[in-house]
Amino acid sequence: MVSVSDDHIEQHSYTLNWAVHMCFNSKLFSDVTIHLGGIELPAHSIVLASQSDYFKKALEYPMKEGIEKKFEFSEGSMHAHWRMFEYIYRGEYVLDAAVPLGSIADDEDLLKDIRVYELADYFQIENLRNYAFQNFKTRIKTLWVSESLIDCIREVYKLPSNVSYGMRIEIAKIARKHLVDLWDKKAFRNLIREGGQFVIDIMKDIIADT
Amino acid sequence: MGSSESKQLPSHARAQTPEPLHFKSRACGSAANHSSQPNGPGGEGADFDACWNMIQEALRDIHNKSCGRLSFEELYRAAYKIVLKKKGEVLYDKVKEFEEQWFAMHVIPKIEVLVTKSLINIGIDNSSAASVNERRQTGEKFLKGLRDTWEDHNMSMNMTADILMYLDRGYTQQEPRRVPIFATTIALFRDHILRSCLNANSDSLIVDILISVMLDQIDMERRGDVIDRNLIRSCSRMLSCLYETEDESESSKLYLTIFEPRFLSNSETFYSRECDRLLRESDASTWLRHTETRLSEEEDRCGTTIERETLPKVSDVVDKKLILGHLDDFLAMEGSGLRWMIDNDKIDDLSILYRLISRVDDKKTALREILQKRVVELGLEIENVLKNTDFSTGQGEGEDGGDGDKAKTLNPAAQQTAAAIRWVDDVLRLKDKFDYMLEACFQEDLVLQTALTKSFADFINLFNRSSEYVSLFIDDSLKRGIRGKTEAEVDAILEKAIVLIRYLLDKDLFQTYYQRHLARRLLHGKSESHDVEKQIISRMKQEMGQQFTSKFEGMFRDLVTSSELTSTYRDHIRKLDPEGHTIDLNVNVLTTNYWPQEVMGRSAQLGETPRTGCTYPPEVKRLQASFEQFYLTNRNGRKLTWIGTTGSADIKCVFPAIEGKSGPLARERRYEMNVPTYGMVVLLLFNDLKDGESLSFEEIQAKTNMSTSDLTRALMAIAVAPKSRVLAKDPPTKNIKPTDRFSFNASFQSKTIRIKAPIINAVSKVEDKDERKTTEEKNNQTRAHIVDAAIVRIMKARKELNHSQLVSEVLSQLVGRFKPEVSLIKRRIEDLIVREYLERPDEDGAPSMYRYMA
User: Fold this and answer.
1) Do B27 and A72 touch (CB under 8 A)?
2) Which strand (E) or helix (H) includes residue A43?
3) Angle at the Cα of B20 (from B16 to B24), degrees rounded to 5?
4) Domains of chain B listed by start with CATH number
5) Which of A73, A205, B455, B849 maximizes the CB count within 10 A of its CB?
6) Is the ipTM of this complex over 0.90?
7) What are the chain B neighbours of A124 within 8 Å (beta carbons)?
């Protein structure tokens, strides 16, 4: 056994990372095709399987996807899907709309992270879930004023409580902080009127303060 | 539908087949139990039904192995949607219900047909009429059926669980009472098949039948049949994938809870019977080989047929039943047991035995005890053979008994030497035997090595002449044994000698003998090589320490100084008397303490007043005076004592022609004789005698003032020994009596000019009974002093000690020199109290205390 220097290991993982980084949206060595709406995204089974159990199983079993090496996603935000695949290859995603999806409207800024977060949950990519959550936390500090905050709350509370717990706490905290300003908005008052777990979380916050 | 090996046991059977892709462990979201809000518009019931119908169809397809048309994404999303709609619980129960029904309709019937009457009998009665072959086929058919069903079920449940992955994530994980869907569905196999009876004619559970069949197959293999190992292994894998409860804790694997205990108890019975049978029908050698084969078979079995984790346990069963079961009986077997192996050097048997015993006993007690016993027995046998051997013919009986013609009668000394050499050879041969055994069979095991060394020391020290014999062996080697030998051969002899010395407990006794024998070799020029002498002394020094060899080294130093002294004295005389008329003197100045007391003229016999020296003739006296003057010039305060008993003299003698005789006697004969110094003193008396006159023993003694024994020995050399009988004795017997008369033997003749009269020594080479008693008594006296010194040294340092502490400290101080009797230590303590070195403090409660008196 030859002892390997840290430099050597670093060099190795750097080249490997870079190769995977460069493969995003590249036909080179591609063995899987992803259809996002009408857009095709070439992909690589080894990369997908390494990041997500969903893809690992789907590519392993002799079902349609495993045989045809083809995935079709039409539900939800295509831009969020794009960002997820970008993350799978590059460990990050950008907020600019992806050029190939030019014809499809991008998500509202406040919803971008939330929707990636949802997909990270669906495809079971834990790191991405954290990454999106952190991005969201930074972004909402300034973007809470956005009209889409209400949609944001609805989407988060739709997810199972155990997977969205942290996100719920964060969003309830922001809502509580700007409660007075938000109350002015009709959409917000409608949300409160519907009741549900979000109202309970807000109330918990208020009671804790008093 | 793929059915390659890697896909037969996918993800959930993780302990058995690692997944080909394993980038990260399955993530678990931070679970917190929040009650959920009622959500969304109505119409979800229809959504649920649509999703469930799709999933249900898919489950059926999966069971039927036709999933090529299924979309993983669609199914996964269907389950996802159900979970988001808070219908996870319903889905979970529906899946479970579906699988139970499927199981009842499609799986159980397949197994039921396999459970035949002859199959059930396998577990109960193996001696039935069914032949082994039939039984094996019935068993194999059942195992195969069960295995195939299990593998289908396992694969289907893995796939199902993966489609429903989000069910576990979004629902099961936040329900403490739920286990993953896979655990629930895979367990159906355990509950509905293994734990069911499935046959009206029997109340045996399938799992019991399964295990019975597996064990039956394994037993068949143990009896020499060929079985389908992979089939058995598939079944043991199945039992490893199923657990007692849905918690799936590692220790509750069915393999561990049900199979393994029965396998082990079955093995116990099997090997217990086998051991009994071997004891009845075979010998120890067969038993050893068979046991080793069995051990390797079980190892093989754990690697190929059942699970590897069972290996230590089943090996333990073989160890306990087959090795320990009748260990002592096998070792004690006549004609093949351990004693027989030892006596016949059965290297292979002993090696196997060692390996087996090492498995069951670190201390190797059974092996060690018999080995030790045998060593001592063989050692005592050497002594017995020695006792019953007549060495007087110069040859050991065993070696060359028929060669009686050549054999001449040996004198007692030579007989003892022969016995000593025989003893040493035999002991060393015995040691070689066990050394070889230790290396070739016992892997140089330290425990056994220590035990063997102890046993050798035991029997060697049981033999009361061991110290003397070891010294005699070295004596003989250095006088004759090393002649013409290469350096390596000499080295081997030295090594043997050292080995033997190591065993001796009474090293002081050996020291005494060695000193005596060495003195003889040196003073009489009998040593073959002074280099070798020095080598062995330096080895002893390494082994026993400086103190042990200081006297021997002193002896060598004396000789070196003496030879220098002799030559300077010669130069000195040559200056005074250039003509060279004086007697040529060669002198050895011996330091009193280095040399044996006997040599130094101190009597060997206790109680007898020492009488040394004699009245030397005037010319000798003058010579002595001249040397003393020369010697003491530079060495003030020394005292020289002349020891005639160890010296010799070269004399010229002239025998006049005898008239009337023919042949040599008619001529004058001149001879050069080497005689003992005292012989020379006696002979000189006859120079002054007239022809025909004689001297009686008493007259000679009166004139020379020699002790009776010295004179007797001197006369033996010159009046009895046949080749140097220059004095005639009356009567001409072979003994010297005080009444004998001696005269010049005018008709002496010799074929050689130079004649060497034998040296009849004061110090006999080997001891008779009395002499040895004397040696021992003297040794005991010396020991008393050494013990005294040790006691005083210890008490001076410790001031106060109780009796047993003191005794044990004395014993430990004297290790390497000798082992004193406790009674001796006791006596010395009493003596020291009387001499007021020690006292008993008069304190209550400390009756056995001693205190040092400054």
Assistant:
1) no
2) strand A39-43
3) 95
4) 11-20+40-252 (1.20.1310.10), 275-343 (no CATH), 367-557 (no CATH), 563-633 (no CATH), 644-756 (3.30.230.130), 769-852 (1.10.10.10)
5) B455
6) yes
7) 26-27, 165, 169
CA distance linking residue B842 with residue A188, whole number of Å: 105
Contact A160 B23 (CB under 8 A): no
Contacts of B421 (CB under 8 A, 6+ apart): B472, B473, B476
DSSP collapsed to 3 states, B688-730:
CCCCCCEEEHHHHHHHHCCCHHHHHHHHHHHHHCHHHCCEEEE
Residues of B in contact with A163 (CB under 8 A): 29, 169-170
CB pairs under 8 A between A and B: 109
Amino acid at residue number B163:
I
- Angle at which helices A78-90 and A6-23 pack, to 10 degrees? 150
Residue with the bigger pLDDT between B301 and B575: it is B301
Q: Which residue of A has its CA nearest to B72?
A: A58
Q: Which residues pair with A159 in a beta bridge?
A: none
Tell me the C-alpha distance between B339 and B458, whole Å: 19
Task: State the DSSP string of B634-701.
Answer: SSTT------GGG-EEEEEEEEPPPTT--GGGGS-EEEEEEEEHHHHHHHHHHHTPPTT-EEEHHHHH
Measured N-to-C along each axis, helices B284-304 and B311-318 cross at an angle, to the nearest 10 degrees, of 170
Characterize the bridge pairing of strands B849-852 and B838-839: antiparallel
Distance from CA of A151 to the nearest CA of B (A): 13
Q: Do A162 and B31 touch (CB under 8 A)?
A: yes
Q: Given an 8 Å threshold on Cβ–Cβ distance, is B72 in contact with A163? A: no
What is the distance of C-alpha B541 from the center of its chain? 25
**Each residue's pLDDT tens digit, B612-634:** 667 788 888 888 888 888 888 87
User: Does residue B10 belong to the interface with chain A, where contact is any CB pair within 8 Å?
Assistant: yes
Render pLDDT for B491-531 as a digit per residue (tens, 0 to 9): 888 888 888 888 888 888 888 889 888 888 888 778 888 88
Distance CA B478, CA B492 (A): 13
Domains and CATH numbers, chain A: 1-138 (3.30.710.10), 144-210 (no CATH)
Rounded-to-integer distance, Cα B209 and Cα B517, Å: 84
